[in-house]
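Structure ticket #2291
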Amino acid sequence: MASHRDRPIPLRVSNKKGYVWDVDDIAILRSHHHICGVLAGTLPHLSQQNVFLGVPLLLMPEEVVLLVDKGGPGFAILVDDQNAHHDPSAVELDKWDSERLRGIEEQLALAEEHEAREALNPDRAMSENAILKRKEREAKKARGKANALEPDQSLSTPLSTESVPDPPGPPDSSHGSGVTVTRNSVTPYTVHVPGTSSAFEWYALSNHSFNTLAAARDAGIWDYPKTPFERARCAVFRDLWEQGYFMGGGIKFGGEYLVYPGDPLRYHSHFVASVIESPAAPLRPMEIVAHGRLGTGTKKAHLLCEWDEDKQAATYYSIEWAGFG
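Resolution: structure written out below.
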């Protein structure tokens, strides 16, 4: 598994769940490594927040194990995101505040330069006067139509029009106190918020990142897999992934995974996969019937995935409901 990057992909762990925040990392995982995950973040000013979601990308625990354990050294790392943020020092805060103020000053200077250019442009300077003149013409036309409807008024009598006051012109520079009046007393500016925490000096990524699952387990931020069934899930997931399948969560269809022949944006899933942790694990006939009926009802075949820890091999059984007679 090649990384396609000059740095490992950080999988930020919070509450023992792995998240990917970088959009480029999300694109690389999907296009090059068949890792889809589920978008879990909201998009600002967008309705139906439960339908259209954004970053971060929430990974299944099997995907995290695959990326860290089988991705090769330096491909992905686990990051203790909570402890990676430490309290900033006074020097770091002063530096951040000075950069923020410098950005505001640059924006204000650009705004003043823009206003100066607008003042030198006569077309834009007369735009408000043009609007007032148009309103004046429309008012005169409306009054003319109203006077024309009066029957006893002589046609030779000129239409009486009220005098419309001229729009106020610019203040005389030779009189007055010399104070310049502006439309807004405060020029607006934008506060830029960094998209990633790595932009802050008080975010210590290197001090709280782990290259192996064992190191993350010792640090107490990751403990998956810890049971035989969880190890079987990871093994089956890896085996199907190595065969080129895309994997998604299958809880809505009565299984552990949905198995896609290609990208889920282009293909429907062909299988609903259920994991059996060992050849000795019991499997009731009613489970087989239920899986077969449910898979056929959702136009999929149900895949029973049996993992043999001793042989380090997976065996697959496909179940479909068939008619008789």
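Closing remark: Residues 154-164, 167-185 have pLDDT under 50 and may be disordered.
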